[in-house]
Amino acid sequence: MPGFNDTCRFRWPSIVMVIAVGLAAAVTPSRSAEIVVERDVAVPMRDGTVLRANVFQPAEGGPYPVLVRRTPYGKSAKVSAKLVNAGYIVVDQDARGRYASDGEYESFVRHETHDAHDGYDTVEWAARRPSSTGQVGLYGTSYPGFLAWRASGARPPALVAAAAFSIPASYLDLEGPGTIRPGRRLKWWHGTMSPDLRRRTGGPLPHDRAAAVQQWHTAEADLLPYFQPWLDLPEDLFGPEAPFVKAWLREPWRDPWKLERDAANTAVPNLNVCGWYDHCNGSIDLHVAIAARGATASARRDSRLIIGPWSHSGLGRRKQGDIDFGPAAQLDITQLYLDWFGHWLHGEQTGIEASPPVRLFIMGANEWRDFDQWPPQGATPHAWFLDSDGAANTPAGNGRLSQSAPVTDARDEYDYDPRDPVPTLWTPAFFTVPADQSPLAARPDILVYQTSPLDAPVETIGYPEAVLHAASSCPDTDFFVRLIDVHPDGRAIDVTSGMVRARYRRSLERLELLTPGEPAEFRIPLRPTAHRFLPGHRIRLDLTSSDFPNYDRNHNTAADQNADAELVTARQTILHGPSHRTRLILPVMGESN
What we know:
Elements: E1 7-11, E2 17-20, E3 23-25, E4 34-44, E5 50-58, E6 64-71, H1 81-85, E7 89-94, H2 115-127, E8 132-141, H3 143-153, E9 159-165, H4 171-175, H5 182-201, H6 209-223, H7 242-250, H8 259-265, E10 271-275, H9 284-293, H10 297-302, E11 304-308, E12 319-320, E13 323-324, H11 333-346, E14 358-362, E15 367-371, E16 379-387, E17 400-402, E18 410-416, E19 447-450, E20 458-462, E21 465-472, E22 478-486, E23 492-501, E24 520-525, E25 529-533, E26 538-544, E27 570-576, E28 583-589
Parallel strand pairs: 6-7, 6-8, 8-9, 10-11, 11-14
Antiparallel strand pairs: 1-4, 2-3, 4-5, 5-7, 12-13, 14-15, 16-17, 16-28, 18-27, 19-26, 20-25, 21-24, 21-27, 21-28, 22-23, 22-26
Helix pairs in contact: 2-3, 3-8, 5-6, 8-9
């Protein structure tokens, strides 16, 4: 095996494609070609810190443009055969303080990091390589996408185009509005980030990812998400980043990212891909920012957004969980990279230059549609009012959704016990996917409001919103709403969802507790979607107070949720009728057909 900085040659058939976080597939190249691989190549930063990268390039010919991916997850020993075979040098780099790179890791809960400068310096280093054309593209999904935006915002002169996928504009969009998402976040720290940090600092075992994941799938999976309070979590869980993580836990309303500023500073066009079921689809906001305020006309005009029916770990795949969205939902991510960078770095006419700015997969119709902007023009807000005879609990109750406003005031009630929260229905890897909500049908702490079977299709594209008039017996609580498509066969499939933490209902910066028993208005934005409810289907809205461990449990107390462990049961009241116009608002596209 070659050692550090050794050069080796091998044949393409031995390559396995690794594109980005969560995306991997075998590749059969069109021809056999020899490449050169340099491992752990030193890349000096402006402060003297040395980062290290694996470099892949064709053995002959050139010069070639360079594609750079920076990652905290451990650079790969292999990259896509198709990328190098198409005439690119590929640089895959460990981020500062991770794996082979020197320096101290600076997690994304810190407000100040070297990420932008490190990205800038790496792009300029790549442009100066002897076999480089001097033109560079950045790419990456999720955290590598975050690092790509940071570098793009620093405007390195050699950068020509970027493909930063699936990372929200704000850390608060990743976690939630003043909330914590313990299922995903604690596993991410425990199994992905901390092992290498503890290894580097001589901390306790496990020091490798495989052992940490194995440990998580034993006792840790059951215990950690229920740990109370968060500020007392063991510091070993976060390694040397514990002080910074806990500083954020003390002020969970603060956004250390503000990636929209990087989008506005970016001078090159960006290709953005995410999914309707992706917990990181707040990356849509980055496309909106660069399209409106990018630093150049090309960044504003030529950036592209593609949104499919995908989860974070399933970009490009037609099947998400148990739901198959059909062959149209399948997208070749590697070919998309080749089309994008082929145009910008090779000057090829790939068709991407003539594509529309926004391409959306319309679920239900299961077809793609092109638009000039996000959100698309042509949507009109339509209200569906919540109504019942006082017993909307469970799908067997009498909750109704109607476009006619109710004429009689009524209410529905349920108890939210944080010791018995509504469980999240998701994958074992803790990624959200479209799920059939039928397993939760017997829970009385879920209110269900649904239409009669539709006579005509209803197509919604944009951001739905729920406007609740509700009271709680406690000074703080949560409300969750879930938009559902009920199929004629009884399946109740997720479309989108949203939540609000009562103390932050008006502002994240200035908390406002509830007066127990006194009604308040809650405006709950749901995550973006594009969905057609077909004739014979029902539009349904589920309302409850927990989704655990996707979100942390509200304690229903006035205390700091992250510093206090007391849990109290809340009696929740939803009011509807002419005095309290509780409603679901859908942006409906024209005449659905």
